[in-house]
Amino acid sequence: MTDKDAGAESPLIPEPTRADPATVFSALAEILYSGSDASEVYAAICVAATLLVPGCDHASVMLHQRGQHVTVAATDDIAARIDALERRLGQGPCVDAITENIPQIDPDLRTASHWPELARAVVETTPVRAVMGFRLVIDQHKVGALNLFSTTAGAFTTEAAAQAGVLAAFASVTATAVSRDQDIASLRAGLLSNREIGTAVGLLMGLEKMTADEAFDALRRTSQQMNLKVADLARTLLEWHGRAHNP
């Protein structure tokens, strides 16, 4: 995949300036469930970063494959270009995040930077002024990084880093599936029970005029009384409803 290819924008998630985290993660799960391939999932994660992480204007995912760092997705050419600079210079938060155990953050590239050559090149050739890199992990092996870029110096606060860490954890799940040569269908199967629970909650909300919290609590209490897992009870409820409406 070329840097130019990586810069193609994902059409999978709409791009408001900021979004509710629950909505974004639900959209990501739906992308997995709908049968998207790995490249589409990585692209969606990059777009999600700009929606979830305060101050994030551009993002990319870089993986270590066959001895090389490869950009597998990016929101745009700016993110892909910075990845290319890091590979050429052999330094930067994205490259270091793959080998280090802590997030790599430079809130202002215009001041003394951990990566002086990269900082100089980024400031001179792009509008980016702050960078973060979070490693992606498979079975405790570091295999890649989620890379975030801001055009505003100082925008990457503690809150932004915390949000990015959550998203990086989600990205690691995807990287795990791809690294183990599992197809996206296998990953979707792992999400199926959660999807059924959500559908059952929606069904109870409609039938019993409950709120989402009330419906989930009802499922949880009933599952305990019947000594069933919540997912199994949700599946049974959906099957019952299907038979009732399709005798």
Automatic annotation (TrEMBL):
Pfam families: ANTAR, GAF_2
Superkingdom of source: Bacteria
This protein's UniProt keywords: Kinase, Plasmid, Transcription, Transcription regulation, Transferase
Domain called ANTAR: residue spans: 177-238
The keyword Kinase belongs to this UniProt entry's keyword annotation: yes
The keyword Kinase belongs to this UniProt entry's keyword annotation: yes
Molecular-function annotations in GO: kinase activity; RNA binding
Name under which the protein is recorded: ANTAR domain-containing protein
